[in-house]
């Protein structure tokens, strides 16, 4: 399965293998698992509709570590991120820039669920932490409210 992680003008589409245990019993854990499964299936098919899984007010943050040791934390608005995801999808597909995910956990946080996992960049061959906070809207649709990731160029 693939999951899309896109920063700067480069694209990263992620192949996801989820593995993990529920940390805290909660009625929202299973819907969050289902959301994550759908999210990864959209990534697997390089579907730009994956951008629609982000809430319009989602917090998007990426800590990028450069080869010379510099670290830059980038923050984007959800509308900017969603637009960029849609634009770079063809590049991501052409590159086959996939990631594998392991050690995935689902932890209840209020009405939402924090999903933490270890992302392995298959193209660049490195591991990094990745987490998303998901929760349902008033109409019951689930969205990513926060995404915190790390990457390398």
- Counted by DSSP, the helix tally is 2
CATH architecture: Roll
- For the termini, the CA-CA separation is 22 Å
Mean pLDDT comes to 83
Morphology call: globular
* Helical proportion, percent range: 10-25%
Give a quick account of the main beta sheet: strands, pairing sense, barrel closure. 6 strands, mixed
The whole-angstrom Rg is 14 Å
Low-confidence stretches: 1-25
Helix-strand sequence: EEHEEHEEEE
Strand content: 35-45%
Instruction: Give a count of the beta strands, DSSP E runs of length 2 or more.
Output: 8
Q: How would you name the oligomeric state of the polypeptide chains in this document?
A: single chain
| Top-tier CATH class | Alpha Beta
Describe the fold and architecture:
With 153 residues, this protein is an alpha+beta fold. It has one domain: Nuclear Transport Factor 2, Chain: A (Roll). It has helices at residues 29-44, 78-95, and strands at 2-4, 13-15, 54-65, 71-77, 99-109, 112-121, 126-136, 142-151. The radius of gyration is 14 Å and the shape is globular.
Question: Could you name the key traits of this structure?
Answer:
153 residues, two-stranded antiparallel ribbon, 8 strands, alpha+beta, six-stranded mixed beta sheet, Nuclear Transport Factor 2, Chain: A, 44% strand, globular
